[in-house]
Predict the 3D structure of the following.
Amino acid sequence: MQREEDLVRRAQGQDPEAFGQIYEEHFDRIYRYIVLRVRNQADAEDLTQQVFLKALGHIGSYRYKGMPFSSWLFRIAHNQVVDHWKKKSREKARAIPLDEIDEAKTLPSDDPAILAEQKLSLEQLAAACERLSDGQREVISLRFAGGLSVAEAAKVMGKSEGAVKVQQHAALVKLRRILGSSEEESDD
């Protein structure tokens, strides 16, 4: 945590190398969170870049308040996603199907067998997540795609830790039910 505080202080002092390091350390998690929320690779890439541009532009106003710097970044990402969906609803545009997402950006393996298995699992999970409420999808994206703790997710969502835990539990129960029924259907 101390190393992160020093890195942020250096970035606030206009050290481009420090901000570059922040970018490298947090890009993948922010991107994964956004791509699961917007379900479109190009939009997710643009939004992720916007998150870091906003962070760079406002890093001087960041104040350490006992939470990791990533919480601040995820709050910016959350706001970008909300703005994105408001704009999309005004345009009445449709999202690109999940199968057009670049799997190399979201899956860590180069082994074709593992990639195929993970792709199937990612597609099943994404389809199942579509049946969750917006709040449940948000908590699942933050906790598992973004890798945030309950406290960090609560801060990003503007909710109490208890509310996030309840929402996460309900989402996981519903996902187990959805995925369990789809597995039973595929076994027939």
